[in-house]
Design brief:
Helix content: 55-70%
Structural class: mainly alpha
Protein name: Sel1 repeat-containing protein
Number of domains: 2
Mean pLDDT: 92
Radius of gyration: 19 Å
Oligomer: single chain
Shape: elongated
Largest sheet: none
Low-confidence stretches: none
Strand content: under 5%
Organism: Paraburkholderia tuberum
Distance between the termini: 27 Å
Length: 202
């Protein structure tokens, strides 16, 4: 029987000191009150609240002082340094949005070492497009395989697409198309069954 992929997100949620408090964060409308609430959770040892605080500073509304990218980056880094695998995905994306591809590669590589499939998918994408690294399809394919093995469905689709596009024979090309089709079916089913699943993150 195939071993079920372990959800890194579930593992990290289970370590949170106050899950109810973490969920409550999204429902607090007042910006100042939300900031105080998140900081209180951080002080109590909530690693995922570090990510919430980073996101808060990155997207803070103009009427509340506007974005504070220095603080956002600092909190993304603290979350990564805390040992969180999930944080590597969020922090890596922060650098992608800044078009700092070398830093994104560095952070996604940490996520790869921690076995977080969504970060591995993004790292593979960098190798496909040559962003922050030299283009390397073999390395990208290896990374997509690793992420797919960890249950990521987009990695399965990307692996199939690469197999088809780099195929040296009609048979291998057809195999790639079948892989893409099967991954597409799995993606649609997963979106219906569990739209926020870690398996759909990329």
């Amino acid at each position: 029987m195939k071993k079920k992929a372990i959800s890194q997100e579930r593992l990290e949620w289970d370590l949170e000191p106050d899950e109810e408090g973490l969920v409550k964060t999204a429902s607090i409308a007042d910006s100042n009150e939300r900031e105080r609430h998140i900081k209180d959770l951080v002080a109590r040892g909530s690693i995922l609240s570090m990510l919430n605080l980073a996101h808060f500073y990155e997207y803070r509304r103009a009427k509340n002082g506007g974005p504070d990218l220095v603080s956002a980056e600092a909190w993304y880094q603290k979350a990564v340094e805390s040992g969180s695998a999930v944080a590597t995905f969020n922090a890596g994306y922060f650098y992608l949005r800044r078009k700092n591809y070398e830093k994104a590669r560095e952070i996604f590589s940490v996520g790869m070492d921690r076995g977080y499939a969504p970060a591995i998918v993004r790292l593979a994408d960098l190798y496909v497009h040559g962003l922050g690294v030299e283009k390397d399809y073999d390395r990208a394919k290896e990374l997509y395989k690793r992420a797919a093995k960890n249950g990521n469905l987009w990695a399965k689709a990307a692996l199939g697409a690469m197999t088809a596009s780099l195929a040296s024979s009609v048979w291998v090309r057809c195999k790639g198309y079948v892989m893409v089709a099967l991954a597409g079916i799995q993606i649609r089913f997963q979106k219906w069954r569990e739209p926020l699943s870690e398996r759909l993150k990329k």
